[in-house]
Write a structure and sequence with these properties.
By secondary structure, the chain is α/β, with parallel strands linked by helices. The chain is 37% helix and 21% strand. The strands form 4 sheets. It has a 9-stranded mixed β-sheet. A 6-stranded mixed β-sheet has the order 17-18-22-19-20-21, sandwiched between helices. Strand 9, helix 5 and strand 10 form a beta-alpha-beta unit. Helix 11 runs antiparallel to helix 12 and helix 13 packs parallel to helix 14 (372-385). The longest helix has 18 residues, at 450-467. Residues 463-468 have low confidence and may be disordered.
């Protein structure tokens, strides 16, 4: 965080100082909400949750070196007391971003936000100091905490913005007003909460509505609902995609034998070849989005192509590919799932598994509302069409729909199986995997299927030890 005195922070958040002998003392270290993350010189934000009240840790964090606590009541140690801690956190972020003067890049979309944000961060970091959202820390608490981690040296602030309803992105853009707004796609993630893709588009488009006339809206030319957002902004519009009309586009898209995308990147300033380290053709669109941001910020096409070719995954459990000592490849994509990302992962599995036996260990896609049955059925059918060797559907009702879709599409019989939980999936795979197999593990975060991938990797490590 940039150095601010407690008096300056109190003024920014409209709070009252309590038990602070010297208001000129500065906060120079990160602002955190987890007492275990406090470092000397930091500020602790005390949220009162359903199970844990951060105020109870006030004395502990000050003893650990926190300068003060941002709290909703006096806590007996140096504190800035406010009526609403969350609103105060947002106000502090807004004040810091204003003081910072960095270029704010905000992005949203139904799928691919975190992967694209990671790509943008790795590309821009080559040009100037960059701070970005860790993981998918993209809500009304995570976003201001990310903004507050910027320092005086920060030139680019890359912020992922999530939404679960109309007005959410508008609120987030009020905290950290963007200079560049990127909309990736409008899919079916959270469609049960929004009520339809048109409502999702309405919510995502709040990002481009927030842009200043001197800003830039970067829109997906291949998604009609996103492309239509051009009419909702006063900013310059830059299109990306595989469409011939895109300003930043890909040609000669292909997958390597290992399933990694390669293509010719075209920008208004020239063209260059890209071969990515990430897996799956869906990363082409993500890479084009990142390239469009970088082009808008003045990077050359050669710099952008080199950065994209060298970029890796910064976030856990997103197409995380690990090969066991026995030759079994585990693809852990279990952080989250929606119909779009599930289809992309299955296509990546099919590409990676050329000449090898493939397994898709899949679970529930959450928050699909009335579309849940049809979407799970469609994913099961797609697995058959892509010639995935075996589908293991994990869980209850939604898993049965996955398995039924696969069975009805190809009469797989024993080639698709429905198991009750993660442990049952692990037991099945341990007994049937053989060297050279490729296993994809994917479901919504609430299912916890990352435990399957972790167990299978542990099994491989144990096998290596035994072989020695």
């Amino acid at each position: 965080m940039i150095a601010l005195s407690l008096a300056e922070i109190a003024a920014a958040v409209g709070g009252q100082t309590h038990d602070i002998p010297d208001p000129s003392v500065q906060v120079t270290a990160p602002v955190v909400r987890d007492s275990r993350e406090v470092v000397p010189g930091g500020l602790f934000v005390a949220f009162a949750g359903e199970r844990v009240d951060g105020h109870d840790f006030a004395a502990q964090v000050v003893e650990a070196g926190a300068v003060a606590v941002l709290a909703s009541r006096p806590v007996g140690v140096p504190a800035i007391v406010v009526d609403d801690v969350q609103a105060a956190l947002g106000a502090l972020a807004r004040d810091v971003v204003r003081r910072l003067g960095a270029t704010v890049v905000a992005l949203t979309g139904s799928a691919g936000k975190t992967s694209t944000k990671d790509l943008i961060a790795q590309v821009l970091q080559r040009a100037a100091p960059t701070v970005w959202t860790p993981g998918s820390f993209n809500n009304e608490i995570g976003l201001p905490l990310t903004a507050l981690s910027a320092t005086d040296e920060t030139r680019f602030l890359v912020l992922e913005m999530g939404a679960r309803g109309i007005g959410h992105i508008r609120y987030l853009t009020g905290l950290t007003p963007p200079d560049i707004g990127l909309v990736l796609n409008v899919g079916t993630a959270h469609i049960g909460e929004f009520g339809g893709r048109e409502q999702i588009a309405l919510a995502k488009g709040e990002l481009v509505e927030s842009l200043p006339a001197g800003g830039a809206a970067i829109l997906n030319a291949d998604d009609p609902l996103v492309r239509a957002m051009a009419s909702r902004t006063q900013a310059k519009v830059l299109l990306f995609g595989e469409s011939a009309e895109a300003d930043v586009r890909a040609e000669n898209v292909r997958l390597t034998d290992s399933g990694q995308p390669a293509f010719r990147l075209h920008t208004p300033s020239g063209a260059s070849d890209v071969t990515m380290r990430l897996y799956g053709e869906h990363h082409v669109s993500n890479a084009l989005a990142a390239a469009a941001v970088a082009h808008e910020l003045g990077m050359s096409v050669t710099e952008i192509a080199t950065a994209l070719s060298e970029a890796g995954s910064l976030s856990r459990w997103r197409m995380e590919v690990t090969e066991r000592p026995d030759g079994v490849t585990i693809v852990n994509d279990a952080y989250n799932a929606n119909p779009e990302s599930m289809r992309a992962a299955l296509r990546a599995l099919a590409a990676m598994g050329r000449g090898r036996r493939t397994w898709a260990v899949l679970g529930k896609m959450a928050e699909l509302g009335d579309e849940a049955l049809a979407e799970h059925d469609a994913v099961g059918r797609l697995a058959v069409r892509l010639n995935v060797g075996k589908l293991v559907a994990v869980g209850r009702r939604e898993a049965s729909w996955l398995q039924l879709g696969a069975y009805n599409e190809g009469s797989w019989g024993e080639e698709s199986v429905h198991v009750s939980d993660a442990q049952a999936a692990v037991d099945l795979l341990r007994s049937e995997l053989r060297p050279g197999d490729v296993v994809l593990v994917k479901a919504s975060r609430s299912v916890g299927l990352e435990s399957v991938a972790q167990a299978l990797l542990a099994t491989g490590a144990e096998g290596e030890v035994a072989a020695r």
